[in-house]
Design brief:
It is an enzyme of class 2 (transferase). Residues 11-132, 309-371 form the Glycosyltransferase 2-like domain. Keywords: Glycosyltransferase, Transferase. Its EC number is 2.4.-.-. The chain is an alpha/beta fold and 511 residues long. It folds into 2 domains: 10-192, Spore Coat Polysaccharide Biosynthesis Protein SpsA, Chain A (Alpha-Beta Complex); 249-372 and 408-463, Spore Coat Polysaccharide Biosynthesis Protein SpsA, Chain A. It contains 21 helices and 14 strands. It has helices at residues 23-30, 49-54, 71-79, 96-107, 128-139, 159-165, 173-182, 203-206, 217-237, 249-252, 279-286, 302-310, 326-333, 351-362, 374-377, 384-395, 415-421, 429-438, 455-458, 467-487, 502-509, and strands at residues 10-16, 37-43, 59-63, 84-89, 112-115, 155-158, 187-191, 264-273, 292-298, 314-318, 337-344, 367-370, 411-414, 443-446. A 7-stranded mixed beta sheet has the order 3-2-1-4-6-5-7, sandwiched between helices. The chain has a 7-stranded mixed beta sheet with strand order 10-9-8-11-13-12-14, sandwiched between helices. α12 links the parallel β9 (292-298) and β10. The longest helix has 21 residues, at 217-237. 52% of the residues are buried.
Length: 511
């Protein structure tokens, strides 16, 4: 136990499976912390791990079969009697001086202490697991935690925190974190411990593809864990997790096309929500590749309406906005083309850049998105908006799309997709995307060009005087999309859980 003004009993819980080469050294180092108890959960071991641990005065919980990752963590927590719980794995050696910082943080009043892995988001390669961890923290309004998670050892918590989270929930670290944060527990991550480079490579977990997944087993399990955490969040706070909406859904649900007569193969919808400075230049450039241009917005000046109409464009001006992205739904509903290209009056795009989107639709693709990959390769660390976009594509098993999104302009959609999904769903881009993906429509991120827009526009029209509210809508839209996905798959989004033995957890919980 680390010295302090108040005496605390420290319980150390170690998960171990075939760790005969490391476990003795790890335990001898842990004794330096003067713990009340060291609990080693040995499961599925076939080597001398058990024999070594039993000779080191530890509490041993031994199971013949493998329990699955983090099950041992929960079982150890169930048996622990200390005021502070420190969690480790039996294959990674960490010096006691580093571990003492986790204990000290609990002694100072924090409830949960995470390993500080902030440095990992400054790498050029964005691993799916890191994207998942950061996305969850953003949804939980704890962006300050970045990628730090209960899924990474070492971590520690007070007995009080364990009681509020529920020892059985430690089987799923993202769920535990979600419960803890929504319970207003104090989280911190004071100490960086490099467990990435020292984590042993396991081909079955880290390389072998999971069933019905483009990801390795470990990645698939972690994605599923995060989806399950969001399932809990939506159950707790509603289908948008309490995030602002601000749309007039009743009026939006009544959006229908004026007629079904096809007059053009191509339509262009230019939305103007707030700023109209570049509108005329956009119209003049794009009318060279389409016979129909529709300008849809609200609060347009009479002068701007007149100028736009003089170019031959149709103008739909609302006195009051029906909410973010409503203009694209209204504009599309008034279009007559089979291929509908969406942009706004502030996106700098010429006909050569727009043409490939039309060509993609005309050649059989049903949704063509902007390739926005430069926003995650040129800007390090990846920002919150692009993290959420990337996370949605990971959950949908489309990692090749990276951060491509219907929230980013420009993009093009075939009319039949909109007719099947619903015109009103265009106002909630992630939901429209999820529904389209689940119906099997073909979706690509246009690779021929990379549209150069302002960062503000690329994040999906999040601008103006109320950026905070716009960000709330953006996050709520993605939770709403994930809510739909979960309801049509399962609470893990269809991902397997890595064969965790949940029966043993249920038996102990029901005692």
């Amino acid at each position: 136990m680390v010295k302090g003004t108040k005496k605390y009993n420290l319980s150390i819980i170690i998960q171990a499976q075939n760790e005969e080469n490391t476990i003795k050294r790890i335990i001898k180092e842990l004794i330096r912390l003067n713990p009340h108890e060291i609990i080693v959960v040995i499961n599925g071991s076939t080597d001398r791990t058990s024999k070594i641990v039993k000779g080191l005065n530890c509490i041993v919980l031994e199971y013949e079969s493998a329990l699955g990752i983090n099950v041992g963590k929960a079982l150890g927590a169930y048996e622990a009697t200390g005021d502070i719980l420190l969690f480790l794995d039996g294959d990674i050696f960490i010096e006691s001086v580093q571990l003492s910082q986790f204990v000290k943080a609990i002694m100072k009043g924090y409830d949960v202490v995470l390993n500080n892995l902030d440095w990992t988001i400054f790498r050029e390669n964005h691993f799916p697991t890191a994207i998942c961890k950061r996305a969850l923290n953003i949804f939980l309004k704890r962006e300050d935690l970045l990628v730090n998670s209960l899924g990474a050892i070492p971590n520690a918590m007070s007995k009080n925190a364990l009681d509020k989270i529920g020892w059985w929930n430690l089987v799923d670290p993202p769920l535990s974190q979600t419960i803890g944060i929504t319970q207003n527990l104090l989280f911190t991550s004071p100490e960086p411990v490099d467990v990435i480079s020292s984590n042993p490579f396991r081909p079955k977990e880290h390389k072998m593809k999971a069933r019905n997944s483009p990801f390795p087993n470990s990645t698939s399990r972690i994605i599923g864990d995060h989806v399950e955490a969001l399932h809990y969040l939506r159950q707790l706070k509603g289908f948008r997790a309490g995030f602002h909406d601000g749309r007039n859904r009743e009026k939006l649900s009544n959006i229908h096309p004026l007629n079904n007569v096809r007059k053009n193969k191509r339509s262009i919808v230019i939305t103007c929500e707030g700023k109209t400075r570049g509108l005329l230049n956009v119209i003049k450039e794009l009318q060279l590749i389409s016979d129909e241009i529709i300008v849809a917005g609200y609060g347009l000046s009479k002068r701007m309406i007149k100028f736009a109409k003089n170019t031959g464009a149709k103008v739909i001006n609302q006195e009051k906005s029906l909410g973010i992205n409503a203009s694209r739904s209204i504009g599309a509903a008034r279009s007559s083309g089979d291929a509908i290209f969406f942009t706004d009056c502030n996106t700098r795009i010429n006909k050569e850049e727009a043409e490939p989107f039309f060509e993609a639709i005309e050649n059989g693709t049903e949704i063509a998105l902007t390739n926005a990959e430069h926003l995650i390769t040129d800007i390090i660390p990846i920002d919150s908006i692009n993290t959420i976009k990337y996370f949605l594509n990971l959950v949908c098993k489309n990692p090749e799309l990276k951060n491509a999104s219907l929230y980013s302009l420009p993009h093009a959609i075939h009319r039949r997709v909109i007719e099947q999904i619903g015109w009103d769903k265009l106002t909630i881009p992630p939901l429209f995307f999820i529904m389209s993906e689940m119906k099997g429509f073909s979706i690509i991120a246009e690779q021929k060009i990379v549209i150069k827009t302002s960062h503000e526009i690329t994040t999906g029209n999040i601008h103006g005087s109320d950026k905070y509210r716009a960000l709330e809508v953006f996050l709520g839209d993605h939770i709403e999309a994930l809510d739909y996905y979960i309801r049509h798959t399962n609470k893990r989004g269809g991902y397997l859980d890595g064969n965790k033995d949940r029966k043993i957890i249920r038996r102990l919980k029901n005692r």
